[in-house]
Amino acid sequence: MSATVSHWLDKLQESLQQTNCHLQGRPCSRQRGFERTQQLLEKQQQQSGQIWWIGNGGSNALCSHLSQDMINKLALRSHTFSDASLLTCMANDNGYAAVFLEPLKKLARPGDLLIAISSSGNSENILCCGQWALDNGLDLITLSAFAPDNALWQLPAQVAFHLPCTLYGHAEVGHEALLHGIIETLWLNQHRQPTPQP
Length: 198
Description:
Blueprint: H1 5-17, E1 20-23, E2 26-28, H2 30-47, E3 50-54, H3 58-74, E4 77-80, H4 84-94, H5 101-107, E5 113-118, H6 124-135, E6 139-145, H7 151-154, E7 159-163, H8 168-190
């Protein structure tokens, strides 16, 4: 049987509906995970903190897109590591495992928020940043997919989402859908016009 786009979309919807969530390593509902993520974003708004995004390949592209949305819609101080000169310098001097860790150590401060995205959940350069964030007073949100025993999903992040799927397209579009939903509903609620009183 040949693959069809309709079946692909059905599997994406199925994965999104089955998204798993942990709060500091403990299972919770998707809705509770969404709410806690929005609380962490509001915390950064209130304290004028900074948000840092890390991901490889397609996940790095998601980081750039969604960081821009946070700046534009939520007025957050949001940053990605996507400058070619910086990344090649860090990788050349420190190895690819530290490509995000070295600039993060120099720029991030306790109380900031790190958002780490990895489809496999096993990318060394993402995992070391997640552990560093937990060890140095940053809040951590992770998004992973594929195997449920992946290392990123096992970190006791403030919020962790796991998308049960086997295709990169489902993982990347699914992660983007989850984050768009979190960002856009927070924006809608913050800009909701009060209902006129009779």
